[in-house]
């Protein structure tokens, strides 16, 4: 059975592991490093979070680990439960349990997380981005009459970016758009500070466009381990801006590709648990 991996924050319980019976000897930072080293062997991790045990329990830590892939999380749970791993005593590992059904929109990954996920599945040379348009929408003009000039503190830098993410091996292109705005608050703002803010705003607009482009892609991981890509322009991912707000600025043609002989896969369920629904297990 194929698995779908989205460019969205993983919230499903079958992608989340609870690890407890962690020793109180190492620091939380050391445990974080050790857990990341061990569990990243099974697949790409979204996050590793380490927490101290409750005051009523014996000293120690527990951790919540999130994978992008449910298949990787299952393999990690089976391989690590009851094993010593990096400490003298065995650890306990279980998959997250859902106590209540919660429907919500998927949260988009940021640009760096999208690129990390793409590098993991497609390889560093398996994708690229092409900027189509980077437009300055800033309104920094001062009127001739100084009395009616727009105060600098109310002005801002604003950039719009349109680009496409290209997957040459899959003959797939995904367009993305992003807009970023940076306020200019100080009257004494110098030219160097202005140029740095301008560069930062441009970079942020590009990052948002990259994230937007990846949200339309779904990685299909087949049982054989082979990878396919599905393009879904109508995926609902929560973001700061929608394409409808930007459609007057630029129009981009959509390209899609679907693997021959493969039917469209069912979407993974939105239903997930909240992290605080994890109750610390009773200690023997």
TrEMBL record:
The keyword Nucleotide-binding does not apply. Keywords: Cytoplasm, DNA-binding, Nucleus, RNA-binding. Its main location: cytoplasm. CDD domains: RRM_RDM1. It is found in: Cytoplasm; Nucleus, Nucleolus. Pfam families: DSRM_RDM1, RRM_1. Coiled coil: none annotated. Homodimer. This is RAD52 motif-containing protein 1. It comes from Neovison vison.
